[in-house]
Each structure stands twice: as C-alpha cells, then as structure tokens.
Amino acid sequence: MKTLSIQKNDTITVSIIDLSHDGLGVAKVEGYPLFIENTLPGEEAEVLVLKTGKKFGFAKVLNLLKESPDRVKDIDETLIRTGIAPLHHMTYEGQLAFKEQQVNNVFQRIAKMPETKVLPIIGMDNPVEYRNKAQIPVRKVNGQLSTGFFRKNSHDLVPLENYYIQDPKIDEAIIIVRDVMEKYGVKAYIEAENNGNLRHIIVKRGHYSNEMMIVLVTRTPKLFNYEKMVQEIHQQLPEVVSIVQNINPDATNVILGKTNKTLFGQNYITDELLGKKYRISAQSFYQVNTVQAEVLYQKAIEFANLRKSDTVIDAYCGIGTIGLSLADKVDKVLGLEVNPDAIADAKINAKMNDINNVKFEIGRAEYLMPTWLKDGIEADVLIVDPPRKGLAESFIDTAVEMAPKKIVYVSCNPASLARDCQLFADKGYELKQVQPVDMFPQTPHVECVAELIKK
Ligand SMILES: C[S@@+](CC[C@H](N)C(=O)[O-])C[C@H]1O[C@@H](n2cnc3c(N)ncnc32)[C@H](O)[C@@H]1O
Q1: Which terminus of the chain has a smaller tally of CB atoms within 10 A, N or C?
Q2: Which residues, other chains included, contact 371 with Cβ-Cβ below 8 Å and sequence gap of 6+?
Q3: Which domains does the chain carry?
Q4: What are the pocket residues of ligand 1 if the criterion is a CB atom closer than 6 Å to any ligand atom?
Q5: What interface predicted TM-score (ipTM) does this complex get?
Q6: 100-137: per-residue pLDDT in tens?
C-alpha cells in the first residue's frame, strides 16, 4: 500500500480545485483529498494538516496565497465555523453557480442521466435574513445563560446575537427570551450530565402575519414562575401569540420531545403562502424560506400542468400547503403525511380557506399508498415532497403501478432526487426537466422540482 506523503501538523501549499457538497474547499495531494474550510476553487493556500484518515483528511488555512474572484471580503468567520452560513465567504453569484453545477453533477454521476435538462437556478433578490424559524441551543458559558450555535462537529456553544440568515426579529426575540429566562434563574441544560433544564429556544415568525411562536424546550416539566416569564416575554414582544413548553427528558441530539404544554396564548401561529392562510403548530414542518417556498410551489404547479378533471395526490403533504395551493385548479386532492399534528393542521387549513375538495390522511407514504391503490384510488398527478433520504423503492413501485400521467417531485436533496428519478426512468417515466430553487442562501443546500411524465 502506498504511504501517505502528508501527516498531521504538516504545513503544505495547496491549490483548491473543487467545493465539497457541504461547502468545504477540496485540494488533492498526490490524489489524496484534503478538505479545507473557508477556501474556494481557484485559490492557493498554505495550510496546516489537522487530521488524516484513510480516504481523506482535513486542513486549515494559515495563509491565503491567491484569492478567487468569488471571494467575499470582511466576513464574520463565526458564521462559517458554526455551519450557520458555510458559503458566507462566496459571492451570491458564485453560490448559485456552484449549486446549479451540483445538480447537474448528480444527474450525470449518480443517475447516469447526462441528458437531463437542468434549468437555471432561481435565486433570491435579497439572500440574507430569510429564515422564518430558528432552533437555538442554550448552554451556560462563562457563568451566563447563553444562546448561539455549536462549533461545527462539536457541542461547544459559540455565543451569537446576529445569525445573519434569520429574520432579524427572530434574532431579537432570542435575546429577549434568553434574558427573561436568566432573570428568573432558569438553569441551562448540561449535556454531559443530561442535567439542568433549558435545552433550546425555538422561534417561528410568520413572514406575512408577523405572528410569533416561542417554544421553550426543557429537560423537565418544571418551569418555576412561568406565568411571570411569559407575561414579560409578551410585554417585550407583542407579536408573540403562542408560547409552548416542549419537554425532552432524553440524552439525545433530537431537539423536540413528545410532550407539549401551552404556556401562553394558542399552540400555533398562522401565516400565508400564495394568498392562502395556514395554521402551523410547534411540531409541524413548514418551509423555512417563505419567499422561495412560493417560487417553488408555483414551479411545482406549473410542472403539474393541471386540468379541472384531475385527481392529485400530495404525498408528504405536511400542513397541506402544496395541495391547498392548487386545489381550485383540479377536481380533488388527496394528501398524506406521517405526522398527526401536521394532518390536524392541514384539515383546519382546508376549512380556513373554504376548500372542500381535499382529504388528508395520516400514514407512512410507503404503507398508505399501497392501501389507496388496493382501494381503487387513481391519480392523474402525483406530487411528492419527501425528507432528505428520498422515496422508498416500494413507494416508487406503488406509484408506477398507480400510473399517474405526471409526477412532480419536490426535493431538498439532489442526490436522492437523482437516484429516484433514475428508478422512475427505469420503470416507464421520462424525466422532462429539473428546476433548482435556492431556498437556503449562504449554505450549500439546494431545493429542486422535477417533472416526470408517463411514457
Ligand atoms: C420536506 S417536508 C414537506 C412538507 C410539505 N410538502 C411542505 O412543503 O411544507 C416532508 C414531510 O414528510 C413527512 N414525512 C416524513 N416521512 C414520511 C413518510 N414515511 N410518510 C409520509 N410522510 C412523511 C414529514 O413529516 C414532513 O412533513
């Protein structure tokens, strides 16, 4: 076996040739990949080797010797180090080009579908301060209850007040809530001992409604003086319509526990998307970038090319947003989703918008779709919007058997999208086009909508 010519603590000079899928610069030393934070393709740097594994290693920049024209100067490196904004050092044009290339690459390399028509990515006019939701860990740092983000690959809290990609009103709310908690002596969670109490502060804010929800994730149900605390929060943040305590007693990285208790107001906020009103509860999924979600849904509806006689299945429907956005264009919509809270929201959302041609059912897509098929349900258009891991192959088989004339696939992970499109292509569907939409500026993530038609 060839021995590696570099070792931990070596100082070497490298050229950056690529960006990894998670936004790290990639250099190769005699074919061995080194991943280097805060570098860009075309740059040269003197780096310190931090770690070497069998297949790849990590290094950090000591001196940047040649800069890329895509480099942004005067950045806040904390945003990169914490992983809040891993592409903060890259111009927005550079970010968009990188993401579009990534989508092209997965269809060529993973799916072996080099002919795929990938449309130019749709970016944002103002690609900062877009997130309508924040999940912020709470720890004790220097004797103070602190909020911030973990340093990447660690659970060391870096205290922060400006999160750059979040709605600034959310940043402001986190500080106010943190300070009220500190005033009333609430103890920060101690992860190493699964002790202490306040684990996370979650804030959701309606982009159009401005209604705000605060979720206090605690280890125990005890929250002394909560009546006084919620009054003070509401006094300082009149937009707050809901304060929920979520109890998560487990030693786990999963943020939310199973139990919710409403401490103030209602247990949901409302917001709007494409002119329809939605109710969103603490545990329901809701797209974090409202402006781009509207762009994404419009593309999905355009690709669906709907007729008034169509039956549409909205699989992985969350609180029903896609199905309800298109319900007035079709005969009926059937939505399915595994989270009962989201389905409860979806049913109320249909009523709130006076939409009567929709039905929502709780269930796992891979189990419920075969039941629907057996019951004789037929769909003209199938819309899917699964989590990052994509679709189960059994779901794809059922979908193919149901034989909708069109499938619109909304995806937050181009790799699983490409894999699944290849399967659909093998089973009688033609991939017409893929539209990338930048839902997550300053990060390497990219959303896509794909149009598949039955051959
Ligand atoms: C990316 S979200 C999309 C939600 C919705 N379409 C929207 O745009 O807001 C994926 C949804 O799939 C749900 N989900 C996850 N696994 C599922 C499964 N096996 N079957 C059905 N729904 C699932 C999640 O609860 C989540 O609401």
Answers
A1: N
A2: 363
A3: 11-71 (2.40.50.140), 101-124+289-454 (3.40.50.150), 133-273 (2.40.50.1070)
A4: 285-287, 316-318, 321-322, 337-339, 342, 364-366, 385-387, 412
A5: 0.99
A6: 999 999 999 888 898 999 999 999 999 999 999 999 99
